[in-house]
């Protein structure tokens, strides 16, 4: 039976695996994916970033940067987070989104810890890296979780719609960590739709989702609720193309917590970059140990 | 928004790009151009004879930026591109009224 | 009057020219440039080793137009140049205070 | 300050530079460009077959000047570049808000 620590490792490995799997087909349409790969179902690298197989992208790297800033600072601190993101950007990462780059640049030049609220910040760049918040604030009250999410998101993305979507993903991960079922996760997704109707996902199949968080989560929720295993969920979502490494990463963190680490295909874990995998598993445990639920508070 | 154009010596392009990247500025467009100014042209061998070509190859970089980044941009370019010898080049700043990112339709601050 | 500059993928030049011509816009100047941005450069083989060249060839078109044609121009370029993949390019609009047609001396609206 | 851009026929570059130099204007930047306009493209022979290339090679010169030199600059270019045949080119004037000479840090009027 999966312990809390197993599920946390599952979530973090799921994130990394989803990122690496989706990266191969990022920016491709479903038809292009079929023409080149048939059904894409293995960690083969390549893609527009020409990755060696098993390599992760900014989705996993920013999560690790956020998590290590929380552990070093002993809490969710916007300045420590901004500094960690800036250090990460200095390593010349394999990819970095425009909105993330602008936010970090504002921090470097003016010390800005929260970018101004902006209709253009509804991209998925803050959601893709939210797993450390889900782990560290497990057991905390709703307002603390929401505030921690805002602190990390607003370093680069300040948008009410995106905040709501990211908060729901955090809640879904936390519910799954605590052993709740897919049915209960569905309730959380429906709560989001009730509060923000744009997020509804019961109409047309979302294919080729863009970076707009509404489209990203539509693909994630459709794939999650249409399948019954980690592997079928991930294969479903990445073959929809579009921002596939990010839909893969977000679905991977939810499904990894839900189905547990043993549900992640051996053949994927075997190819996943060893350094990243180790960092993910270590950090999942460290963040849990420091969380409200485990450390008390 | 502003457009910053800089005419620089070609071998300085990498140094200038590094200096700009420290401020998070990585998007730009570069063009090979011929510079005429106080720096004299070079001599070239052509069919065995040496003759003076009175222009020098330069690189022109164009960056469109939000207003708050312009000062940083100018000092990064100036520091990185300067050798102190004639012909180091010039920087021109002008206004841009509208920017569009073709791929997404994003506009202005969100497009640069 | 306005100047519209667009950085586009080189293979898109004909499509963009057709779209503009359908909107009655046929005069422009095109320049081969090097683009730096989020899109990755290409790999080249040099002395047996593979390395990444970090710019991409782009084409920059420049069109000077009367103000009333700018919106049409922007949407024609955007629609024709977009592939949805990273690196599609950008459009910049700026003011032009004076235009002269060299052949005739005609000015401003009569010169474009 | 102003930026004067002129698209001219390539063989006219030396004449234009002389005319400008006679007016005391010697600093400028030149770029090889492709012109599309009313002047028809040329035919080229390729693998034995003749085909029409619909652009024409042009040269674009860019000069940044103090406002008082702009009129002189325009008439020097126009007089020197004109042949009276279609395709002689165009001149565009726009505002420049800030200029820096990289070598010395001099600004604006002292930088051009
Ligand atoms: N008025 C100008 N307008 C546009 N470009 C210019 C102008 N003057 C100089 N340049 C460009 O700047 C370069 C350097 O100018 P130059 O006079 O040789 O050296 P310096 O600026 O160091 O005195 C030239 O090669 C040319 O490309
Ligand atoms: N700030 C900028 N100023 C001028 N040109 C730019 C700027 N940013 C990008 N470009 C040009 O736009 C092209 C596409 O940008 P890129 O970031 O690769 O893609 P996208 O806009 O699709 O995300 C670049 O190759 C470059 O020519
Ligand atoms: N609207 C425009 N914007 C920018 N450049 C232009 C424009 N129209 C023409 N040009 C440039 O001017 C050149 C001459 O234009 P063209 O129409 O052929 O001749 P003319 O100006 O003598 O009637 C073109 O080859 C092109 O480089
Ligand atoms: Mg990524
Ligand atoms: Mg992505």
Automatic annotation (TrEMBL), chains B, C, D:
Belongs to the P(II) protein family. The modification O-UMP-tyrosine is found at residue 51. Homotrimer. The keyword Metal-binding does not apply. Coiled coil: none annotated. Gene3D superfamilies: 3.30.70.120. It comes from the Bacteria. PROSITE patterns: PII_GLNB_CTER (PS00638), PII_GLNB_DOM (PS51343), PII_GLNB_UMP (PS00496). It comes from Thiocapsa rosea. One of its GO terms (cellular component) is cytosol. Keywords: Nucleotide-binding, Phosphoprotein, Transcription, Transcription regulation. GO terms for biological process: regulation of nitrogen utilization. GO terms for molecular function: ATP binding; enzyme regulator activity. This is Nitrogen regulatory protein P-II family. The keyword Nucleotide-binding applies. InterPro entries: N-reg_PII, N-reg_PII-like_a/b, N-reg_PII/ATP_PRibTrfase_C, N-reg_PII_CS, N-reg_PII_urydylation_site.
